[in-house]
Input
Amino acid sequence: MKRLAAELEKLGCETVSDFRMSSYTAMRVGGRARIVAYPQTRAALCGTLAFLRTESVPFEVLGGGTNTIVKDSGFDGAIVSTSRLKGFEIKPGFSVTADCGAPLSAVMNATTRAGLSGLEFAAGIPGTVGGAVFMNAGACGGETAEVVESVVVWQDGKEHEIGAGELSPAYRHGGLPPDSVLLGARLRLVVGDALKSRAAIKKSLEHRKQTQPVSEANTGSIFKNPRSVAAGRLLEEIGMKLFSVGAAEFSGVHANFIVNKGGAKTSDVLKLIKIARVKALEKKGLYLETEVCVI
Output
């Protein structure tokens, strides 16, 4: 462990060993990771990824941890956090370049102040630009893929810039190349009306407060929406609203959210997911695909 930490620190990372992942993820559940590495620069991130792969150390890359839960048994490897890579810059020509760890809300607010439009859909979506691009996050009729002009990924030990036309995005899937890690993205926006954009953002945030459990620990939508019905409506129809296992509960505000009522375990969350899937299949003939990632 000490050798691994020392090597990662040489590469430009801050490290924490035996890290409790429940303090990282938004749902506040999960066991311990062998080590968490915080690269301070993009070069340090690339060097870290190359080192871990060469040394055959299992690793996962996380941004804000808003769409991820970690098993109670923890992760016997390295969590590579992009949380230190927060840079972004508004460029001439109505675009913005952002590091993978840049908070999506910060980019939305800055571009709105600059009179650019295109990210209003992201109001209230937690997490980072990297996470949003990776999963093609969306809301209010908009998706991240609609504003992506290009991405920079680490793949096969090198950095590659890939245009949006070479990606294959789909619903809650960014379409990045297999076995690649997103380093940054260029987003293409348009000239807008800052007052109208702010009004749209305010409206979206107010709607979220009324319809989602924003004050409780959660990881966002648990299931992707089936084509025929919204997942929240389906879960309510099959009786999952307020259904609980341990301290994990399907929210009474929005049934497609599982909230941590205090002291929940990942196993509680996974049991709820399993029960909901069985009921949806038995009662509606629909298979629910998870949106949340499990490590």
